[in-house]
Recover the amino acids of this structure.
């Protein structure tokens, strides 16, 4: 065989996946899974809330499928589950929402003086001969590390308030927020212990009680941010997620003008009675299908629309996220 001609192919970090299987359309997620990947050359994380520090970074990652572009790079602090709950700090972790999973590079762990010992039943993560963590075999021969994101990193996401010098606090257009470059826990003299900012300036992660001078968003602003959700359900969501907000008093509610978007979309009407069965237009299942499509804020995997299908006879409904 002849020698290869042309310039050498530049080396890029790669991740050993074919496609992302997870579609995030939620705002309150459980603890994410972290997969030990012996073929990955870099740590990958798709969930912004896992980062303790994050800065913008654009780079293409080679995958088993299509290349994936990163949106940032930062530090993730994990706590290994076990007798001693050892911390595991992952540095230079790529933030790639389209990957759809969190990958820990085994070669990088080895370079950081960790060792991974695999057995048919269990996988042990060791450092200097002592077991500091374990992993288990999951579906599709995946190795899932028993760990959770450190408490300091799992602070809730809170949309950034527009600075008073640039606009009104309740403006529907959020202002850009500067992103922390250094690890807030490693930098000295930092006023805010956790200030990971979302890429694009749409949200900022704030540790509860750590940052001073940040006003709580009003209930009217959260109404717009949550897709013009009705007041009752909006308060339930904010209360269950522990999100601080300024509730409207009855006097303020009466003085507040009606939302133009809700009036145009007829969202001010009361919901139909659940006791009354809707009139059927079919005599068997799948004879008539009702479908609708709506636009939503771009999800972590890039989905922008939701398409729904409802069977007229059985009232069975299906919803799919599409791009």
């Amino acid at each position: 065989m002849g020698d290869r001609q042309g310039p050498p192919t530049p080396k890029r970090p790669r991740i050993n996946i074919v496609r992302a299987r997870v579609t995030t359309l939620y705002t309150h997620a459980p603890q994410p899974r972290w997969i030990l990947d012996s073929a990955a050359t870099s740590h990958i994380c798709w969930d912004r809330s896992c980062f303790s520090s994050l800065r913008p970074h654009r780079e293409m990652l080679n995958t088993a499928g299509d290349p994936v572009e990163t949106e940032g790079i930062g530090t993730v602090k994990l706590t290994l589950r076990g007798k001693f709950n050892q911390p595991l700090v992952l540095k230079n972790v790529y933030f790639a929402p389209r990957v759809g999973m969190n990958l820990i590079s085994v070669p990088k762990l080895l370079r950081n003086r960790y060792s991974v010992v695999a057995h048919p039943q269990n996988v042990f993560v060791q450092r200097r001969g002592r077991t500091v963590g374990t992993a288990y075999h999951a579906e599709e021969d995946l190795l899932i590390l028993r760990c959770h994101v450190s408490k300091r990193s799992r602070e809730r996401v809170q949309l950034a308030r527009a600075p008073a010098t640039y606009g009104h606090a309740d403006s529907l257009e959020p202002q850009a927020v500067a992103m922390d470059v250094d690890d807030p826990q490693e930098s000295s003299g930092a006023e805010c212990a956790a200030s990971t900012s979302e890429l694009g300036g749409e949200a900022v992660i704030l540790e509860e009680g750590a940052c001073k001078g940040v006003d709580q968003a009003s209930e009217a602003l959260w109404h717009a941010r949550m897709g013009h959700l009705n007041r009752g359900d909006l308060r339930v969501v904010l209360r269950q997620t522990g999100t601080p907000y300024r509730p409207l008093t009855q006097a303020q509610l009466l003085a507040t003008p009606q939302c133009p978007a809700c009036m145009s979309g007829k969202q001010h009407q009361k919901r139909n009675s659940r006791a009354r069965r809707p009139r059927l237009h079919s005599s068997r299942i799948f004879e008539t299908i009702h479908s609708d499509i709506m636009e939503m804020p771009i999800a972590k995997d890039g989905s922008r629309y939701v398409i729904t299908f409802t069977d007229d006879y059985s009232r069975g409904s299906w919803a799919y996220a599409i791009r």
About this structure: Residues 18 and 195 are 33 Å apart (CA to CA). The longest helix spans residues 231-240.
